[in-house]
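queue> holo job accepted (methionine sulfoxide)
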Amino acid sequence: MAEPARAELPEGKAERYAALRAEIAAVIAGEPNRIARLASAASLLAGAFPDRFFWTGFYLVDETKQNELVIGPYQGTLGCLRIPFDKGVCGACASRRETIIVADVHAFPGHIACDSRSNSEIVTPVFGEFGALVAVLDIDSKQVDAFDAVDAAGLEAICADLLTHD
Ligand code: SME
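queue> job finished
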């Protein structure tokens, strides 16, 4: 059974994202290590929407390979280790450099089923301070059609802080 969201977070979704953004920024402030920042964000994100977020984590652009993502910090069941840019929702997000919402992953051509219990997902790009794509944030849900424009705006705002501030 999913655990309840942290009690101190507001009920409304947009308000909860705003509080979460401030919480993540406060936790990672002054920490220069990229993995420390992303791992902390993955933990706080997963705990903020435990009923909807089944898998929450980052795939990193592999600087040693052309157009390939490699698994980064995450919360959830075992994720695929590598995703080429031309595969899956994460790959599509990395190539297009924009947020992608998929209401039914089983209808998405090339979707990679790391866990067959996932039914919908949202993937948001994470850029470094000079605008290079550094990672994507992948959130999967057991619910069909779990994500909307409020999620996209909330997650994009959080991702904008992850690698670009102090
Ligand atoms: N759903 C992703 C694959 C990664 S996992 O589900 C953790 C995709 O199709 O890009």
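queue> Residues 55, 79-80, 83, 88-90, 111-112, 114, 118, 121, 138, 140 surround methionine sulfoxide (CB under 6 Å).
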